[in-house]
Records
---
Amino acid sequence: MELLFALMIGTLFGLGLYMMLRRSIVKIIIGISLIGNGGNLLVFFAGNMVRGKPPILKDDHITNIYSLSDPLTQSLILTAIVISFGVSSFGAVLINKACEVLNTDDIDKLTDTDNSC
Amino acid sequence: MVQNIFPNFNYFDITGPRIENNPLFQFVLFITACTVIYGWGYFENSSKRNYVLPLLILFGLSMAGLVIANHLLWLYFFWECTSVFSYLLIGTYYEKKESRESSLQALFITGAGGLSLLLGLLLLGEHSGSYYLSEIQLQHFNLEEPIWSTIVVLLLFGIITKSGLLPFQGWLPNAMVAPAPVSGFLHSATLVKAGVILITFLAPVFQEMPLWENSILLLAGLTAWYGAFMALLQNDLKKALAYTTSATIGLIGFASWTEAGNLVAFSWILAHGLYKSASFYFVGIIEKKYESRNILKLRKLFSIEFFDKIIGFSLFFCCIGIPFTASYYAKKHLVDFYLNLFQQNYYAFVLCTIWQSLMLINYFRILVFPYIGTRERYQAMHESAEGFQEKSVKTISIWMKVIPVVLAISSVLSTFKLSQRVTIHASDVGIWEYFTVAVYGLFTLLFFMFYRYHHFVNALGKKLYTEILWKWCYKNKLRMIEKIAIMQTNIVQNGYLRYYLTMFVVATILLLGGSIYFYSETFIRKPVTEILIYELIIVAMIIIAAFMSTITRSRMASIVSLGAVGMGCSVLYLFYSAPDLAMTQFLTDTLIVVVMALLFYDLPRYSRLSSKTDKIRDGIIACIFGGVISILVLSVTDAQIYTEVMDTMLKKTIPEARGHNVVNVILADFRAIDTLGEISVLTTAAIGMYGLLRIRTKKGGDES
């Protein structure tokens, strides 16, 4: 499974970068989202990944806390997901408005605040 | 991690034992107080008062911090503080180009030195096993190891730039564009002493090292002679004073490299600080009153007030070290030191005598010469047909008059402290007396010789300065650096976002790939988990969806594929026991797909913007990047560290937070402040979105 995960995360990063190198601003934000997902998975992967043992404690008596999956990375990723949601949606609105004004989504033409086309 | 980098780092212990009975600390605070009072008078009726005085106080405090700092990194912190404040202070008259250039030069040179010093201090801290100066001074190291030579070279570079020793002396005279309080305080009493003070701090560690000894002796000795000669060539009172400062710093450096010379160095630092700042403040008075600080012009003025003459005379005597002034004892220490160092080598002694005589001439030219001698004044009066233009003497604040007197008096009073440490041996007395007499005799002789060639020498000095030192040594180098910077910026940062990104990614690939290549022998150490078929399907779905979102020509399709990637991640989180993540990802991804679909619906179609070669190039970079990340992922599988943090959180979840879901407890309880920050980020984004959506754009001209 590790090899598959590595391949998947690598693909997400690679494709995200490819999209970020495009000139269309919509593609750039899609690329950022892809890399964001890849980054979250990367952090998740670095923690203790186990199947079916969520970090939920049953009672006061803890038998083996190390068999649980890593709660620290999970809370980090949770924050990251929420923040990237905020960033992407704000970016989407901004792009929408910018494209409305400028009639283009080519970042090379986004050099002015007025409609240049 | 931080512990690994700085094993001996303690953030809060700044001074340690160094604050107790530290004469330098008291000295710095005293001079700061004097300077602020003087500056209050100097900037009377000037808008610069509110700019300079707070900076002077801040500078004084950082200098005081520097002399008491025990921790190496605090030392560095205060060191850089002094650089920054001196930059701001030299540029007091920032309206003038000259002022800006000089302050930039000072920042440039001391800043470069500061970087080198930081590296040196870090290496010193790491290799000595302690970041505390007081502990380092007591240890003995095997200085034969090559690392110590590196440390010494790095530290010395920082020291010589700050103290203006050769070959980095250039910024010191140029810094004289600053007003008198700044010059007197920074560039004679305190800032330039920082370097030699650091030499004395480190002397116990390195004194047995030939590299340390020889380089300091050479550079400091050259600077001493250079300053003494260059001062002779200057007609500007402040520049001449600056060069004498340079010379004295050289002398102090000459003595301070060994622990035995510490007493000499400290007494010179104190004595010189007092009389030199007093001289600067005196020159400031002259400049204010007679609106000139040119020696030749001042000699043609008819009306020099009696007060100024008296002050000039007494300061001259403070400078040359007549008995019962601080510099008298400083010189006595110096002679003792030389006798021990050179073991009755009288050549060194003769050189020292000549140097002292040169310095005497300099002080005479600055503090006495312009205000005496009526012959030239009468000549000037007769030459001008309209009669001598009697310039009205400007009145100055009483605070300005007081401070040089106070400093001169304290120069006398401080002898009580210095003289206690002098032990006079019977044999030394004879030498000392001979020395003094020789110095005074030589002074008289040299002065009359010099006086004949006065004008010639000054013209030479001016040419030497503007042609060689300023233009060739500094300006050309600066221009070269600028050219390189422009070239490099044009290549790396040409204004297109994607090129920046490409550069960034290429650097990441090289650094990351390189370090993985060199430091990671085996990749997978964790027992490999078996492949489950439903997970395989999810992973394949994510990969396909990601490709879809990239290659599709329809915007909607790529947004939906992006949503599919997110959903896939969410399911993976669910499989690998992270229900909270799965929920959140599911929620945000649904929302983001809806938001994007709504907002991007009526945008223009994707157009073909990139050429084929661009696409291939980007594709290759992206492939390599993805590959490196894959290898990184494989090599972090064994990075699962059970940190102390995680341990504490797991154990405290039930007893302290009364929760069962550890992730929720971390977010809402242990790291509640962070979550608050997160909420405020989201709120800000929401407010921003609302504001943006409310803007009605001009479309089709139906809006005004």
---
Amino acid sequence: MPAAAPELQTLAQDSPLVEALRAGDERAFLGLVGSLHPAMMRFARGFVRSEASAEDVVQDTWAVVLEDIDRFEGRSTLRSWIFGILGNLARTRATRDGRVIPLSALEPTDGEPAVDPAEFLPPSHPRWAGHWAKWPEPWPEEQLLTRETLAHVGDAIDRLPEGQRAVIQLRDVEGWSSEEVCEALGLSDVNQRVLLHRARSRVRREIVRHVERRRP
Amino acid sequence: MLAWKFFAAGAVAPFTGVPWPLPSESAHAEWVEGAPGDGKGVHACSVEDLPYWFDQELWRVELGGPVTRSGRQLVARRGRLVGRVATWPEAQDEFTRGCIERTRRRVLDGLLQAGRAEDAQRLAAEHELDAQRDAAFAIAASGPAFAGYLFDAIRRQPYPGLCAYIAANAAAAQDGRRGHDVERTTQVQWLAKHLALTRDD
Amino acid sequence: MSRALSPDLDCIVAVEQVTDYLEGALPLEARTEFEQHLVSCPGCVIYLRQVRAQVAASGKLAEPRPVAEEVTRKLLEMFHASRGG
């Protein structure tokens, strides 16, 4: 199922852009900044948690990008390379600011179920152990896409552990492919999926709570 | 090779959402290619698989390329629509009523075997589905949980895949693997007969 | 009376497979079983729809925002400095 990917970048698309940047093409640079900067800010905020710190690390990232662009080999997409730099800088900054983010934050933690087991019939049920005790209620689209609900979704994402937040941010919010996310975050495919699964499950619970609260 | 496939309305493949091109009066339908790669072909089923895949429309399909089986499904390189089975989903109601009736008989048998003659009588006396459902619920609540399968089957009548599954589970609960297979075979035979399906796939 | 014969997929297991399913990461046999479960489980069908809706809604959080002028200015300075200007 394709996630929304308004500017899905491919290695092929990157090449002329990289050339233009190396050649000092100001418009190319501004175009790149325009398309990536908001996403970079959103991503950085998952690590540093203050707007000012996020601005710093994003600016520092651009500095590194400009310094290293001649050495960029194009083995990953440009943006996953840039976000890889950003992630490292953001983590370093967060540590410096006293927020210690262990590397293991990017590794899956021990199994938490996607859905509260209480929503399913217990093993003692004579006929339907493990089945829904009550089917989930469909979410009306008008309710899901209100500013209020979206704000709840955003909040839920903000409150995720760093690893889960990073993955769901890039996959579901920014619409990146799993390959690019693994590239940018240095994750295996499997690890990325586990983090995505946990992240989506937590966010879903927030939506359920919010949507159900608003029911008459 | 010919096979069968259930579709969402408009000959839309139920899981991929891909609409299959329709055949015209004069020409075959265009082929739909499965994505390359392990197991990513086009899915279809043989008659024996039908009760596992219910959906809005049932079509005869032709499969091309090597065809393999994965569980209760056929996987092929490509497929195309041949013709729609006109009697589906019109026959759905009758099909599910059959599942319910067989489940009712199994529950009655089960109650008698368990020495619950009074419960069996009470249930047998009901002729309307609603009343049978409520009686089954009450009986299950008072002891023999097995009766609950009839409650489940009637309650889920609008969902043929689920109703068929409940009937199969009730049969399995009563008579193990053999019971399960007998029920599923009965379902298949009913479909083959009432939808006038030929079995030469 | 014995329960339904395994290896039927239960909902409590199916919901843990949804992410892999949507990623196309389930091997063929598991994918077949998962889809078969959906046919007999309107509850899980709704759940899957919810997950898809949630992902679509999350995408709406990626609002394009114009970069602040001051930031643009600073970055342009950096750009020209780095290109040997």
